[in-house]
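name: query_chain
kind: protein
chains: 1
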Amino acid sequence: MYLFLCLAWIRAGFRRMSVSYYVSNRICYLIGYIGWAMNAAELLEQARVSSGMTQEELARRAGTSRPTLSAYEHGRKSPTVATFARLLSQAGWELAAQPHVSFTQQPTSRGKPTWVPDRLPRLDVARALAVVELPLHLNWSAPGRVFDLRSRADRARVYEIVLQEGRPTDILAYVDGALLVDLWDDLVLPRAVRSAWAPAISPSSGAA
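structure:
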């Protein structure tokens, strides 16, 4: 299992980050694959800048010096995990470890492959029960329709659409694993899609 470090914004009004890899109010980077995304120095600087703090202010709050913080942000020195977490905490962020969800394409009889995760993704409550309008590439048959995910019927319809039409980013954006297991027996899905997802569902539901 790969390990992701995620920086979760903990201030109530924050909704969006201006960064290259924005995922659900989190900036993530894969350890050992720093070239693929942000490195620790860039993440630390981005967190500080987004909080509106100067190097001097953050250093004072975190109990370090401005030159040391500057060295961290420019990659000249590497902070320990404890120091990194303390700096982020003082900037209004928290450091968390999350398992990485990877996807494989499973062939189906209808010709269009289905994307299946190696583990069921989870959403925070606000996103899992949000009011959503699916993009056209998903809900091409009823564009503009709004779904209230607090409604079991609407949630079931969204999951049916996303499991059949969605890409990995769509699955991560709309599907909560625990709610999917709860709905599984009621979902109307092609046999091939249901079979492809069964290995991911079975460990969680205890049934094939």
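note: The CA atoms of residues 181 and 205 lie 6 Å apart.
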